Amino acid sequence: MFIASAHAQTAAAGAPAGGELFQIIFLVGLFVLFYFIAIRPQRKRQKEHSAMVAALGKGDEVVTSSGILGKIVSLDDNYVVLNVSEKVELKFQRVHIHAVLPKGTLKSIA
């Protein structure tokens, strides 16, 4: 009984004007916020990492994404061979190089 009259009152009032425009502006604003918080910084880090991987050279001291430190002995298009100890060389994909260390870091750690 009371529910039917309440439902009839809301149906007679109609939807508020401008609701659709507000929703569109809200969604666009949300996408812009998401772009500046998530997408743009990730693309920047991706470009920096790609530039660092492309600039790798023989003799660079690096750390891999798994935390292994080593000196680059040889490299090709996709792989890097690291000297991690005397007579121990490991082969990694270039994309798994996390950072290039300053010269002499390996000697100062050992």
UniProtKB/TrEMBL annotation:
**Stored InterPro entries:** Preprotein_translocase_YajC
Keyword Ubl conjugation belongs to the record = no
Q: Does the keyword Transmembrane helix apply?
A: yes
- Major localization class: membrane
> How does the record classify its membrane topology?
Single-pass membrane protein
According to its UniProt record, where is this protein located?
Answer: Cell membrane
Give the keywords, sorted. Cell membrane, Membrane, Protein transport, Translocation, Transmembrane, Transmembrane helix, Transport
Which Pfam families does the protein's record reference? YajC (PF02699)
| Name of the protein in its database record | Sec translocon accessory complex subunit YajC
Q: Which source organism does the UniProt entry give?
A: Congregibacter brevis
